[in-house]
Every structure is written in C-alpha cells, then in structure tokens.
C-alpha cells in the first residue's frame, strides 16, 4: 500500500473543530452536552474488546489485554475512549482538531494518572508512525475528505493491526433519530450532524478496501427503549466496521 502524507487542511473542517471545541468544558459530565457519548461508550468498548480478543486471540478475562500495544484514537474529543484504552494496557495517542478538547483531555488524564500522548491535529499529526490499534468513533462524517482521512488512518496502522471505525448510516432512521429528535429536543447539541455527510456501510467499506485494508466485520449499533444502545445486526442507525492491514 502506498504511504499517505495528509495535511491538516485536507481533512479538518474548521467549523466542526470549533463546534466540538465549544463543548469541551463539560465533555466529562455524563449529564452535560456530551451525555449521548457517555451512553454510547460502553457499547463502543464492548465491540472493541470483542474484536481485539478475536483478532489477537486474547484472554477474554484479562484486565490489561492491550499491554505492549500502541493505540491511536483519531478525533478523540476529551478522551472518553482514550482513558479506557489506557486502562486496558495500551500506550495511547489521542488526536483531535480542537485544542480545547486536548486541553481538557490532558488535564483529566493527568488527574487519573494516565500517561496518554495527546496531540492537536488530524491524521497528519501521526505521519510516519505505526499503531497496533487505530480507532475513530463518529468522526469520519465530520471530515472534509473521507477518502483522504481513511487513507491516513490506514497508513498509521501497523501490518496485522486492527482498525475500528463507527459512524451513522445515511438512512431515514438516522435523520429522524439523530437530527429531528436528537438535535431537535436538545439531547444532541444542535448543528452536530449533517445528514448528507453520513456514509452508508458499502461506501465506508469501499474506502477502507481502497486504502489497502481487509474488512473483518460490520456490526450495527442500535437503540431500543428496553435495552438502550446495544450491538445489533441492524445497521440502519449507526454501525461499526473493523479491518486489518495485511
């Protein structure tokens, strides 16, 4: 696969970075503007752990299964995923386009004694580096060039490594749930989503394959009143894709 050099201007939308940076101050408040992310995080971690255990044949009962591995979370916000990855044993690098998010993430990690390497930027911030695990959750729908973004992530993935992305599907259900209801009722900050930027699973898997990756799994993230957010075969609302670099 050809190595990519991707500039920050290629993938970062300034208005998106400003939008999420303005939310930084209460990112860690489970009842604040990022409450939805707190509700999503357990499902993200469950899928990540399941895929990592399967990919590397890990001990499913181990407390630090990622010990000795480097992990990158691209578009890390204030570190909601970075901190659990660090507690699972990984040497974590978190990158976000909003300096405000990185300031909050760094301070929160320091209070918890977690040595996470936080950086301001996008995929260009890790050019030339390789990571065993690359994650980017609900980020690709906010970048200006999804193909360049995926290529940059793929370039950062070590051979045999594991990449996991999540993003909303471009369906009538996602428009209703995330924009009409979610943003309309204030459960999600207004202006967070542009439905036209959502990617269908076939579109995202094609971008990953074009970047030289082999797709391993596609799984839905669904919501029901009884179960809340949970993993599902239904891809209509939101979904995960896992892939590896041969």
TrEMBL record:
It holds the Pfam family Methyltransf_23. It comes from the Bacteria. Its EC number is 2.1.1.222, 2.1.1.64. One of its GO terms (biological process) is methylation. S-adenosyl-L-methionine binds at residues 44, 75, 96, 137. It catalyses: a 3-(all-trans-polyprenyl)benzene-1,2-diol + S-adenosyl-L-methionine = a 2-methoxy-6-(all-trans-polyprenyl)phenol + S-adenosyl-L-homocysteine + H(+); a 3-demethylubiquinol + S-adenosyl-L-methionine = a ubiquinol + S-adenosyl-L-homocysteine + H(+). One of its GO terms (molecular function) is polyprenyldihydroxybenzoate methyltransferase activity. It is an enzyme of class 2 (transferase). Pathway: Cofactor biosynthesis; ubiquinone biosynthesis. O-methyltransferase that catalyzes the 2 O-methylation steps in the ubiquinone biosynthetic pathway. Belongs to the methyltransferase superfamily. UbiG/COQ3 family. This is Ubiquinone biosynthesis O-methyltransferase. It comes from Sphingomonas gilva. The gene is ubiG.
């Amino acid at each position: 696969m050809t190595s990519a050099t991707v500039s920050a201007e290629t993938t970062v939308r300034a208005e998106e970075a400003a939008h999420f940076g303005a939310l930084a101050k209460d990112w860690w408040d489970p009842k604040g503007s990022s409450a939805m992310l707190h509700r999503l995080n357990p499902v993200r971690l469950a899928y990540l752990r399941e895929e990592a255990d399967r990919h590397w044949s890990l001990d499913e009962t181990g407390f630090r299964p990622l010990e000795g591995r480097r992990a990158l979370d691209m578009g890390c916000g204030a570190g909601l995923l970075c901190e659990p990855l660090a507690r699972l044993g990984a040497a974590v690098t978190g990158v976000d386009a909003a300096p405000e998010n990185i300031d909050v993430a760094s301070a929160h990690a320091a209070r918890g004694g977690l040595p996470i390497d936080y950086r301001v930027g996008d995929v260009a911030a890790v050019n030339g580096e390789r990571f065993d695990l690359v994650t980017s959750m609900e980020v690709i729908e906010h970048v200006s060039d999804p193909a360049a973004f995926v290529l940059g992530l793929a370039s950062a993935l070590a051979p045999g490594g594991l990449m996991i992305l999540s993003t909303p599907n471009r369906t009538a259900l996602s428009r209703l749930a995330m924009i009409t209801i979610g943003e309309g009722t204030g459960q999600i900050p207004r202006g967070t989503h542009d439905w036209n930027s959502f990617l269908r699973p076939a579109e995202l898997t094609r971008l990953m394959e074009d970047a030289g990756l082999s797709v391993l799994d596609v799984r839905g993230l669904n919501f029901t009143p009884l179960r809340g957010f949970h993993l599902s075969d239904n891809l209509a609302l939101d979904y995960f894709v896992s892939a590896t670099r041969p």
